[in-house]
Each structure stands twice: as C-alpha cells, then as structure tokens.
Amino acid sequence: MGWSLAGCSQWPVPGAWEHPDVSAPGSAPVLVVGNTGDPATPYEGARAMVNALGKGVGVELTYEGEGHGAYNGGSACVKKAVDAYLLDGKVPKSGTVCK
Which three-class secondary structure state does DSSP give residue 73? Predict the structure, then answer.
C-alpha cells in the first residue's frame, strides 16, 4: 500500500482534507457495519460514522471477523441483520456484535 502513495509525493497541487457534515437529523436509521479485522477500512471509522450520523440515526453493527467486508463473509448473523435491514426495514439494536 505504501508504494501507491509514492506516486502522489510530487503532485503539483496541494491537497485538501475536509470532513463533510453527514449528520442526518430526522432521517430513517442508517445501518453501519464495522469489521474489527478489516485490513483496508479501520473499525474505528464505522463508530465515527455512527456518531457523525447522529443519535437515533446511525446504527452500529460490529462483525468480529477478518477480511475486507462483512456481508456474505461467512457470518450468518451479519447476513441476517443486513438482509432484514435492506429487505424488511428492520433495524438491529445499535451495538449488536456478530461473530
């Protein structure tokens, strides 16, 4: 991964790092799945997104497993929770942990 950053080291335009406001007061719940063993997307980012979406909007589902991505990654618990959310609008309790 480090080698891919080397191509940007001499980029002639300065970068900008902005965090847009993603809060969504009054929105329907948004399910955010965080994977504790994801080598590409840090788990802490899922929790930060849940907090940024706001109380009552961001719903955190934790997958204690390995790999990039949790859905269809072998956890029946994650698959069931995500399917219920997407297909039936059923939201798991925030803080639910799947293995």
Answer: coil
